[in-house]
Amino acid sequence: MNKTTHSFQAEVQQILHLVTHSLYSNKEIFLRELVSNASDACDKLRFESLDRPDLMEDGAGLEIRILVDAAARTLTIRDNGIGMSADEAIAHLGTIAKSGTREFVAKLADGQKKDAGLIGQFGVGFYSGFIVADRITVETRRAGLPADQGVRWTSDGSGAFETEQIERATRGTDVILHLRAEEDEYLASWKLRSIVGKYSDHISLPILMRKEEWNSEKQEQVVTDEWQTVNKAAALWARPKADVTEAEYHEFYKQISYDDAAPLAYTHNRVEGRTEYTQLLYVPAKAPFDLWNRDKRGGVKLYVKRVFIMDDAEALMPVYLRFVKGVIDSADLPLNVSRELLQESRDVKAIREGSTKRVLSMLEDLAANQKEQYGAFWKEFGAVLKEGMGEDHANKERLAKLLRFASTQADDGVSFDDYIARMKEGQDAIYYITADTLAAAKSSPQLEIFRKKGIEVLLLTDRVDEWMLSHLYEVEGKSLQSVAKGAVDLGKLQDDEEKKQAEAAAESFKPVLERLKTALTERAKDVRVTSRLVDSPACIVVEEGDMSAHLARLLKQAGQQAPSTKPILEVNPQHALVKRLESDDARFDDLAQILFDQALLSEGGQLEDPAAYVQRVNRLLAA
Ligand code: ADP
């Protein structure tokens, strides 16, 4: 194969531009990225060789070497891992495979925000070499291919790259950075060692560099032929807790998460018993941009006896804890564990249950002892945690205690415990309302009677709330009750006098109710006198077992079928507009329709025929 020229995928050009312009202040990460790629390549080889031992024919000792050629001004990161075939080199070093990254980069590139921290989230990977190099040459050969099937890939990072076939005696990859004129510091051995120490100590393969010695004749440091391991090569999670500093835990978090901020909390344990494993799990401080993608790869990496196995181990963490990052290292699973086996293994089930409980304890601890931190956590991940109410029945009660809400008494941070502690005497239900926004929830007419009586109502405005509620009926023996469903029964909270008055009002209002029912027969299932309203003329409610109007709207927005049950209209006979129904015969029908439309609007709904509503209101205004 002769030299061929290929152009980079458009997004790669964008990433190259971003990398060289935005990551300039944190240049040294290029080494972390390239060492991490080298380490991945070794992990892949180890994994593939389980089925094909012949792949290891050049030797089973996997390692990474860092070589400096001061005269040529090159820095080489060499591994004897899986390597790449020509096709793989063209595909992997010319495109961005991950669609999430691609979209995000495209957005960053034409957008305003050039946030180095955000770019860091994706692990710009190989392309970060161009921060310090004006040309990169990659020489590689895939394990298992003959020596003449090597490939040389080279590019100055400006738009195209070249490939050609070469002879290469050994499997694996050399990434050769031709340093930019002003980047001489990356030729200095001490500098490279310090970067390796900072970012790559946990890499469990040896990272080797040539030993340097003081030459007293020359009075200078000289490079010897001897190789020396420069990293600790000890997986951080495998070290005893007492030996690991907080700074090391944080640094490790950054490496596995690409998150520049420190984690909110972490937990590190060795679990012994029927199944043995180590877990090091982190809760990030900030949600990643793709938190809502339930299919994205999990943040927890599975190792078996320190050998990396896979990082989309959904089997290890429930989906609702997908924000958790970390490592689980099992002592019992076989190295060649397959995805299918993972799903069936009893050991894995035990690990998953144990790890879930650990994360919940970590959150409980935060909630109890660091309220502010927990508030920050809730803001970022609360809505995701709510998914757990339906997904994780075993931990439902613990999860319920971790939930936080807005209410008529506080804009955030209200737990069920807080609510229950504030319940009025005689109150036996936990009241809530669902709406699209906090403002809409707060101004719902259904809240009026609760406000008047000083009863707290939870205001639920996350999309996931309705779904959560379908799995949560009661907390500590107190039922959850929508203020917009069924008849309000304030039970012992209403005194006899009030009850009597309401009954009398309903009795005398009966004839009007009958007329209203007839006028609204197409739209309302029933019309009745309310006990919810104080200042508003009417409101819409649904029957106890029916789907709330809010949920029906959410489903429609999502393009799903929602049953079209008619709501109930409740009217407030004390209100002037409603009183007018009794006296204004000529406009009865207009008034009835307007009452219904307004009730619908104030509940956040949409009118089927807004123009008709406007005409009716105008007729009244002009009268
Ligand atoms: P990422 O590592 O996040 O996938 P990179 O841009 O760093 O993204 O690398 C792209 C791909 O190139 C890798 O997924 C891998 O397939 C290949 N690659 C990079 N470096 C090496 C290496 N040293 N050995 C083998 N393959 C490599």
Q: How is this structure best described in words?
A:
The chain is α+β, with helices and mostly antiparallel strands. It folds into 4 domains: 4-229, Histidine kinase-like ATPase, C-terminal domain (Heat Shock Protein 90); 236-377, Ribosomal Protein S5, domain 2; 400-486, 3-Layer(aba) Sandwich (Rossmann fold), CATH 3.40.50; 493-622, Four Helix Bundle (Hemerythrin (Met), subunit A) (Up-down Bundle). 37% of the residues lie in helices and 20% in strands. The chain is built from 21 helices and 22 strands. Strands 1-6-5-4-7-3-2-8-9 form a 9-stranded mixed β-sheet, covered by helices on one side. Strands 10-11-14-12-13 form a 5-stranded mixed β-sheet, with helices on both faces. A hairpin with a 2-residue loop joins strand 18 and strand 19. Helix 1 (10-22) crosses helix 4 (99-110) and helix 9 (346-369) packs antiparallel against helix 10. The longest helix has 24 residues, at 346-369. The termini are far apart. The mean pLDDT is 87. Bound molecules: adenosine-5'-diphosphate. Adenosine-5'-diphosphate (ADP) is lined by residues 37-38, 41, 79, 81-84, 92-93, 123, 125-127, 173. The site of adenosine-5'-diphosphate has 15 residues, from helix 2.
